[in-house]
Write a structure and sequence with these properties.
Layout: H1 12-21, E1 29-35, E2 38-44, H2 51-60, E3 67-72, H3 77-89, E4 93-101, H4 103-108, E5 114-117, E6 121-124, E7 128-130, E8 134-136, H5 142-155, H6 158-169, E9 177-178, E10 188-191
Parallel strand pairs: 2-3, 3-4, 4-5, 4-6, 5-10
Antiparallel strand pairs: 1-2, 6-9, 7-8
Helix pairs in contact: 2-3, 3-5, 5-6
């Protein structure tokens, strides 16, 4: 694997909860660059409404892209699914070097293969809706069913799809579960400096 940029130390759940509390409002930014013979696009920031269209337009102007480098605290589940479908249909690889939380994980899983730096923080939790307060989604809701269909589309395996959705829904919305190599069914390729 290869090194994208400098490393960051992240305190996972605390950072996520802080960012949710201030309701991050900036849309994702994109950057195209070339590193070690690979064409890469970085997606950095919140996955907001309309983000999939912006993403699609950006990659359309970079035909040789091979990797999508993700750094996001999450955002809209529906937009993350749409971005993931674009990545899957474009046969792109995904990678995380720093952090990828919540809806970002949904997008990460669309790559083939998927790379995660050993010190990166990949976190999942149950989707939620913001009304007067945070209301967590329920199992077998329309969002739950959309995610089950999405992972079936990505992975082509009903059992594996169920495992992924169960992993997401087992952690309350206000918490964050750090994904680790022990979740082998996710087929994440972990790498470190020694493997470069």
């Amino acid at each position: 694997m290869f090194r994208f940029s400098s490393r960051y130390t992240i305190i996972g759940s605390a950072l996520f909860i802080f960012m949710v509390s201030i309701n991050f409002s900036f849309a994702a930014t994109y950057k195209a660059f070339h590193a070690q013979g690979r064409d890469i696009i970085s997606l950095n920031g919140a996955i907001k409404s309309g983000e999939s269209k912006r993403f699609e337009n950006f990659i359309a102007t970079h035909e040789n892209v091979q990797y999508i480098l993700l750094q996001s605290l999450g955002g809209s589940v529906n937009e993350a699914i749409k971005i993931g479908k674009i990545i899957k249909q474009s046969k792109l690889k995904t990678a995380v070097e720093t952090y990828c939380y919540s809806a970002c994980f949904i997008t990460l899983m669309s790559g083939e293969p998927r790379y995660v730096y050993q010190e990166a923080y990949v976190g999942v939790h149950r989707p939620y809706f913001e009304k007067d307060k945070i209301v967590q989604d329920t199992k077998h809701s329309s969002t739950y069913c959309s995610l089950a269909h999405y992972f079936q589309f990505l992975l082509g395996d009903n059992k594996q799809s169920h495992q992924v959705v169960s992993l997401i829904y087992k952690t309350p919305s206000k918490d964050m579960y750090q994904v680790s190599p022990s979740e082998s069914f996710l087929d994440l390729n972990y790498y470190s400096h020694s493997a470069l």
